Amino acid sequence: MAAIAVSILSGVSNTLLPDKVSPNIKIQDVTITIKFIFCLYKSLSNKDILLLQDYGKVIFYDSFLRNIDCKELTFDYFILNMKNKEERTYYQKFILSNSNEYRIILFRYDYETNNGLRVHNELCNLPEREAHKKDFDYLLLQETIVSPRCCISLYRMCFGKTQVQVSN
Question: N- or C-end of the chain: fewer Cβ atoms within 10 A?
């Protein structure tokens, strides 16, 4: 019975506190101009949109772009809502096969995982305003360092990484 309880707590821990599934892809040359694709699981706030617009041209997907390759578009930040089927199809059609030409950022809630989507970084919040675009873009590609939380660390220590094998 205890093994089942630990197994359930371990499953709950892995659901509430998921590990990052997709490793960051390193960028060698930070001086090149980078085009970003934002895949949204979580909506950007107006403040976030204004922040992106301060650093470059922002394009939101619209249905008139359905058959236009994003290579033909001029943008710094291209926003796709992954909850929308048409936008997921656009991603599959034009971005997935050319993912080495863009830097793909998954913008999600803390509790969500990437569902197997291969991305360059996963963010729950945008970085703070920077003096230069290149510094802001660099931070978009860096994994966020969170402040330590003792209650979560204790929970993970007790239940998070425990693997219990129940035998018949």
Answer: C
For 9, phi then psi, to 5°, come to -65, -35
Question: CA 125, CA 42: separation in Å to the nearest integer?
Answer: 10
Digit-coded pLDDT (tens) for 114-168: 888 888 999 999 999 999 999 999 999 887 776 777 776 677 677 665 444 444 4
The answer to whether residues 61 and 39 touch, using CB atoms and an 8 Å cutoff, is: no
Give the Å distances, CA to CA, from 100 to 54, 62, 78, 79, 103.
25, 23, 15, 17, 7
Three-class SS of residue 59?
Answer: strand
SS3 49: helix
pTM (two decimals): 0.71
Residue type, 58: V
Q: How many percent of the chain have pLDDT more than 70?
A: 73
Could you give the angle at which helices 46-55 and 133-140 cross, rounded to 10 degrees? Answer: 130
Rounded Cα–Cα distance for residues 68 and 13 (Å) = 43
| Stretch (H or E) spanning 79 | strand 77-81
Q: Which two tokens stand for residue 67?
A: 């058959």
**Quick one: CA dihedral 113, 118, 123, 126, positive or negative?**
negative
